[in-house]
Amino acid sequence: MKPRKIVLLSCIAFLTIVCVIQAILAGRNPVKTLKFDGSFDEIVINNNGSEVKLSLDGSDWYVGNDDFKANQSDITTITNNIKEIKVLDTVGRLSGDDFNARWDLNDEKAISVKAFKAGSEVRAMKIGKVSSTGSQTYITVGNSKDVYLVSGNLVREFSKTEDTLKSKSIFTLNEGGISEVTVTTPKTSWGVTKVALPDEEITWGFTGSAEKDEADASKISSWIRQIISLNAASWLSDSTVLPKTKEVSVEITGSEGKTTVDIYSEKDGDKTKYIAVSNKTSHKAELSETNAKKYIKDVAELKK
After folding, report:
1. Under 8 Å CB-to-CB from 110, ≥6 apart: which residues?
2. Residue pLDDT, tens place only, 124-177
3. What pLDDT does 168 receive?
4. I want to staple 195 with a disulfide (CB 3.0 to 4.6 A). Which of 140, 180, 205, 234 is the partner?
5. Pick from 302, 304, 299, 303: which is nearest to 208 by CA?
6. What is the pLDDT of residues 274-295, one digit of tens each?
7. Helix locations, the chain, DSSP H
8. Which of 85, 92, 80, 96 is nearest to 136 (CA)?
């Protein structure tokens, strides 16, 4: 066999071996998942001396100790990242504080996350810095000194403050369950109520000072869809003094009981500031002008 042919066959054999090895490596899943299949009812996050506490009550998570519900999307992300950690690689082991600083896993910079069940710690991790890709993070889990490179920007997810985590929702009601709405202003009181027609069709009619007027059912239905959900622009201190001017009191009756909203206003420079109180929360809320005006409704806008 000629030397040239021998070299060619050797190259083919070598390339075949390389392809086989690559195929084997490609078939492997390099990601190791550290799962926690249990449950927890409290999460404590310590970040540079700032503590955030999340507590589960029934099916709802609350932030801090002031009865504020947490944003559902944030809670889902946080709990999922505690329950399931996708490890891409083990990059080292913890040692002295100076050594750990290379991953921001020293005491000064690491974010501590602990999950508890009935007062007992069931899951813990320390979160260090984000990798250069921005989508991976260096962490440790439990008492292990192994430093893992894991999937996701956990610094972003676990660095949120209590104010950021608080849900801005004051209430969200079931549209189909609404049967009556009463609107009271300093000058008048009127309302809308569901009315059953002889052919069993349901429509809307007026009550109070507008009882004798003809209602536009489509306009009322559109308005109802606007007021069944209310969000705060921001939460105010419980010590906030309500303005003297009350714009409106709205009572919504439905399958979830009675929901009340009182809206006050005061001048703030060239703008008007709106503050709401509701029986659905123990806290005062500032509203955007757009949201406030949904409830400060002129009955004439709902007439035929």
Report:
1. 100, 104, 126, 127, 128
2. 999 999 999 999 999 999 999 999 999 999 999 999 999 999 999 999 999 999
3. 97
4. 205
5. 299
6. 999 999 999 999 999 999 999 9
7. 3-27, 72-83, 97-100, 154-158, 162-165, 217-227, 289-295
8. 85
